[in-house]
């Protein structure tokens, strides 16, 4: 049985995962209307879906442990971006925020001696290591490319390979 404080904290994480899904969906939509960024759009459509799966996994856990998972109300995400660099910086910042939140959940689970929740959260800890690595690698590549259009072309073409190698575990 989940404590009231753990249920509330997990529901806050549900909201954060849902907000991540929406943010990445907005990034996908923005990318899709930019000339030549089809690979980046696909990358963010897939990121959005993964975050939705993360949210559902949390909701099911809350309910299975005797709690009540709440479908969160979300604010409108940012829908336009100054450019690729700023969008990918937002992506990294968002992943760091999620990692910090997961770490806080793990800390709460240990303080409450809720070992079932602690065990469940280890998957999220591992997932966030991969997600942050992927976001950092992509930001580093964009830093190297700068405004070089041929570099951006190659970045767009190769982004899914980066996802498969470093981040974005295929089994969500």
How much is the radius of gyration in Å? 17 Å
Helix/strand order: HHHHH
Q: Give the quaternary arrangement of the chains.
A: single chain
First-residue to last-residue Cα separation: 25 Å
Helical element count? 5
Total strands: the figure is: 0
* Beta fraction: under 5%
- Biggest beta-sheet profile: none
Mean pLDDT over the residues: 94
State the share of residues found in helices, binned by percent.
over 70%
Q: pLDDT below 50 for ≥5 consecutive residues: which ranges?
A: 167-172
Describe the structure.
With 172 residues, this protein is an all-alpha fold. Helices cover 77% and strands 0% of the residues. It has five helices and no strands. The chain has helices spanning 4-32, 38-64, 84-111, 115-145, 149-165. Helix 1 (4-32) packs antiparallel against helix 2.
Short summary:
The chain is an all-alpha fold.
Task: Provide key terms for this protein.
172 residues; mainly alpha
List the helices and strands and how they pair.
Blueprint: H1 4-32, H2 38-64, H3 84-111, H4 115-145, H5 149-165
Helix pairs in contact: 1-2, 1-3, 2-5, 3-4, 4-5
């Amino acid at each position: 049985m989940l404590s009231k404080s753990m249920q509330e904290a997990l529901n806050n994480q549900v909201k954060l995962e849902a907000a991540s899904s929406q943010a990445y969906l907005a990034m996908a939509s923005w990318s899709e209307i930019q000339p030549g960024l089809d690979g980046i759009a696909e990358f963010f459509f897939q990121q959005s879906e993964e975050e939705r799966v993360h949210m559902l996994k949390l909701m099911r856990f809350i309910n299975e442990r005797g709690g009540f998972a709440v479908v969160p109300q979300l604010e409108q995400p940012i829908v336009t971006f100054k450019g690729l660099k700023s969008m990918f910086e937002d992506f990294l910042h968002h992943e760091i925020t999620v990692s910090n939140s997961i770490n806080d959940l793990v800390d709460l689970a240990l303080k409450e001696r809720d070992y079932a929740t602690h065990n469940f959260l280890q998957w999220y800890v591992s997932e966030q290591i991969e997600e942050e690595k992927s976001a950092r690698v992509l930001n580093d590549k964009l830093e190297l490319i700068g405004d070089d259009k041929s570099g951006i072309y190659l970045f767009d073409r190769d982004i899914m390979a980066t996802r498969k190698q470093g981040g974005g575990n295929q089994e969500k």
